[in-house]
Design brief:
This protein is an alpha/beta fold. It has one domain (7-259): P-loop containing nucleotide triphosphate hydrolases (Rossmann fold), CATH 3.40.50. The protein has 11 helices and 5 strands, in the order H-E-H-E-H-H-E-H-H-E-H-H-H-E-H-H. A 5-stranded parallel β-sheet has the order 2-3-1-4-5, sandwiched between helices. Helix 2 (59-67) crosses helix 10 (221-237).
Length: 267
């Protein structure tokens, strides 16, 4: 759709945000997400959230805040890594298809099918013809899901090179964060220019009306988390009216017989 500027031209500066304001806004957004999830549980709605972005950009922290307080049995978080031998023997979308949410459920993908036009493209894990045609395949995949009633929210979490370096060094200096660092991180960082080109082309070719992209500037982690949750609330609210659930008359009757309880009675 051509609405996105080049990633390295996005304004990464955020205004001041005190801790109290952050916590208040965060809690309100989390409560709204829970309300929306409960509404989906009632009416069988489905939601797919896809998070992509740089190493150390803050995807994990954003996902953690997004799922905090949600109904756990209906929330499924998929952390996507290298495909298994079984998955490599199938079409690349197959491993995502089998993780799609059932009706009434939400699925969160920490990295997505866009790996085809990102890491697989840059590392030569697929041919040029394969990643070139993936734009069309992905758009058709998402269109099919949207036509079937799936709500799709895609977030690209973007961090500047300077802030990424700072966060990676922090991980190196902190033994409790060593599990977050691997050789592949440095390989990816060294190819930042290639990734910028791939991200920009991805945004240009797969930002659609039914599954638009949302870029989250994440040099300020707190601002990024609020921005990301605001996007989720806005997009998941489309076409959904949160209503107060009423008790089944049979339940009211059963509670009345067992405990002499009546609606509106105060403790």
């Amino acid at each position: 759709m051509g609405k996105w500027p080049a990633l390295d031209k996005i304004d990464m500066i955020s205004g001041p945000l005190d801790s109290r304001s952050y916590e208040e806004q965060l809690k309100k957004l989390q409560n709204t997400l829970l309300d929306l999830q409960i509404e989906d549980l009632r009416r069988g709605g489905r939601c797919l959230m896809g998070f992509d972005g740089w190493d150390a950009a803050g995807k994990g922290g954003l996902i953690e805040r997004a799922i905090y307080g949600l109904e756990p049995r209906s929330t499924h978080v998929w952390r996507i890594g290298a495909p298994s031998k079984e998955e490599l023997a199938q079409h690349y979308l197959w491993r995502f298809w089998k993780r799609l949410p059932a009706r009434g459920n939400w699925a969160i993908f920490d990295r997505t099918w866009y790996g085809r036009v990102l890491v697989e493209r840059i590392e030569g894990l697929c041919t040029k013809d394969e990643w070139k045609r993936a734009y069309r395949e992905i758009n058709e995949f998402e269109r099919m899901l949207a036509d079937d009633g799936m709500r799709i929210v895609k977030l690209l979490v973007h961090v500047s090179a300077e802030e990424q370096k700072k966060r990676m060094i922090d991980r190196l200096d902190d033994s409790s964060k060593h599990y977050k660092v691997g050789l592949e991180d440095f390989r990816n960082i060294s190819k930042r220019k290639q990734y910028l080109e791939a991200y920009d082309e991805m945004l240009d070719k797969t930002d659609t009306e039914y599954a638009p992209w949302h870029v989250i500037a994440s040099d300020d982690k707190k601002q990024a988390r609020l921005a990301g949750l605001k996007v989720l609330v806005k997009e998941l609210s489309r076409g959904v009216k949160v209503t107060e659930q009423t008790l089944d008359p049979a339940v009211i009757e059963a509670a009345g017989k067992m405990w002499d309880w009546k609606p509106g009675r105060k403790k």
